[in-house]
Amino acid sequence: MTEDLNYPILIVDRIDTFYGQSHVLQEVSLSINGGEVVCLLGRNGVGKTTTLRSIMGLTPPQSGQIFFKGVPVVRKPAFQIARMGIGYMPDDRRIFPDLTLFENLEIARRLSSKEKVQWTFEKVYDLFPAFVDMKTRKGTQLSGGEQKMLAIGRALMKNPDLLLLDEPSEGLAPLIVQNLVEVIGRIRNEGVTILLADQNLKFCRKTSDRGYILEKGMVQHQGMMEEIWQNEEIVKKYLVL
């Protein structure tokens, strides 16, 4: 079921996150309405990954609040946050290398706590047709791009309401990136809200409704993607290497 487009499914309210003594995120705030695709933009090291990890409870913020469907999640362990309906594809994919593609998906299916199953093997195979001939391949036998698609498929098998994607287009050939644009559109059409972190402005323009630009752990700019795309000053200041 598609979330209410007028209701924030996720609210991040002035979070501060640290790695040891390093103050990485500084009063970061953002919100995502149900059914949206929103992107975090910025160069390497600006806090995009840390924002996603903070939401998932992997690097909990020391201050501020995060609400998922109106429920505070800051002090919840990551596995509980996942069970609430948040799926996560980390930038390093984290698939099980000695398990087959099918087994990687099967583990996620078994761990799904939702009674209503939205994402089945058949739907994931329809989303990624190449998986049909790869079911018996182990993780170590998959290319980087194939591992990335598997990580997305595995996250979907847990039937999330919100999907976090960390650098989904990074390292992919242009043709695969274009395919990923279509994949994200289809996932969205199934009612899944998406927050993605990526440096690729062209990719984000094709996939996302709105964007937040991070620099030095702070939100420096936010707006509709087309507005960001056309703002040469903002692009040059925060996004162009």
Overview of this structure, please?
It contains 9 helices and 10 strands. Strand 7 (162-166), helix 6 (174-189) and strand 8 form a beta-alpha-beta unit. It has helices spanning 48-56, 78-83, 101-111, 121-127, 144-156, 174-189, 201-207, 225-230, 232-239, and strands at residues 8-19, 22-33, 37-41, 63-68, 71-72, 86-89, 162-166, 193-197, 210-215, 218-224. The protein has a 6-stranded mixed sheet, sandwiched between helices. It has one domain (8-239): Rossmann fold (3-Layer(aba) Sandwich). The chain has 241 residues and is an alpha/beta fold. The mean pLDDT is 92.
Question: Outline of this structure?
Answer:
It is built from nine helices and ten strands.
